[in-house]
UniProtKB/TrEMBL annotation:
Pathway: Cofactor biosynthesis; pyridoxine 5'-phosphate biosynthesis; pyridoxine 5'-phosphate from D-erythrose 4-phosphate: step 5/5
EC class (word): transferase
GO molecular function: pyridoxine 5'-phosphate synthase activity
Quaternary structure note: Homooctamer; tetramer of dimers.
Record field: transmembrane: none
Pfam families: PdxJ
Role, per record: Catalyzes the complicated ring closure reaction between the two acyclic compounds 1-deoxy-D-xylulose-5-phosphate (DXP) and 3-amino-2-oxopropyl phosphate (1-amino-acetone-3-phosphate or AAP) to form pyridoxine 5'-phosphate (PNP) and inorganic phosphate.
Protein name stated in the entry: Pyridoxine 5'-phosphate synthase
Major location category of this protein: cytoplasm
Organism: Pelagimonas varians
Catalytic machinery residues: H49 (proton acceptor), E76 (proton acceptor), H200 (proton donor)
UniProt keyword Transferase, yes or no: yes
EC number: 2.6.99.2
Family: Belongs to the PNP synthase family.
Length: 250
């Protein structure tokens, strides 16, 4: 008999609505409108990454999201003094600390926590004191998970990009090895008392094996859903992703 292991939350990243807007420099399409549409379609949260170079989400977008949303905002940010000040001003439900390089197209890997443990511990302490849930975006690596736990993070988000890339490239042995690593590290993080999230690069083709991990409480998906919404609309695109996630939990 199959057993339902709990509903998996879907966080929708609306960064790339802003990417399209910024390509023309106007006001449309509006990421806040996309976030409200996602909320109406059943998203459990909205993710937005305010980058140092403001290549997609901007400061007024964060202002608008904080004002408009009734579901949690997951504020992705680099570990800089500027971003810490913005997060402390807004006090979003969650902040997710991510690595950031100006030359990258998108976040290329997990944060190096073990090497910067003392610095990050001091960085996240004021955010926790302000009532934000602190998440650390990391690779499926035991040393990084242990370090995230030691510095006081409440949540880790495991980077699924390598798994998705191997799948897209037809490297199925490497894909399966990375999936096994993700599975093991989800269980390990859970054993430490960390809440486990996952995301990056997930599509209809890759979401179910990750969604099936019982320790994963939330998936954050953006680029694929925004791209699919061009052809289908955001609500139908989300509905299919939600259906696949729910099926995987059986």
């Amino acid at each position: 008999m199959t057993q339902f292991i709990g509903k998996l939350r879907l966080g929708v990243n609306i960064d790339h609505v802003a990417t399209v807007r910024n390509a023309r420099g106007g006001a449309y399409p509006c990421p806040i409108r996309a976030a409200k549409l996602a909320e109406d379609a059943g998203a459990d949260g909205i993710t937005a990454h305010l980058r140092e170079d403001r290549r997609h989400i901007t400061d007024p977008d964060i202002d608008g999201l904080m004002e408009a949303l009734t579901i949690p905002l997951n504020f992705e940010m680099a570990a800089t003094d500027e971003m810490q000040a913005i997060a402390l001003r807004h006090k979003p439900h969650a902040v997710c600390i991510v690595p950031e390089k100006r030359e990258e197209r998108t976040t290329e890997g997990g944060l190096e926590v073990a090497r910067e443990e003392n610095k990050l511990a001091h960085f996240i302490a004021p955010l926790r004191d302000a009532g934000c849930r602190v998440s650390i975006f990391i690779a499926a690596d035991q040393n990084q998970i242990e370090a995230a736990n030691r510095i006081g993070a409440q949540v880790i988000e495991l980077h699924t990009g390598a798994y998705c890339d191997f799948h897209a490239e037809g490297k199925f042995a490497e894909r399966d090895a990375e999936l096994a690593r993700l599975r093991d590290m989800c269980a390990f993080a859970h054993s430490l008392g960390l809440e486990v999230h996952a995301g990056h690069g997930l599509t209809y083709d890759t979401v179910q094996p990750v969604a099936a991990f019982p320790e994963v409480m939330e998936l954050n998906i953006g680029h694929f859903l925004i791209g699919e919404s061009i052809f289908r609309g955001l609500t139908p695109a989300m509905d299919e992703m939600r259906s696949l996630m729910d099926q995987a939990r059986l």
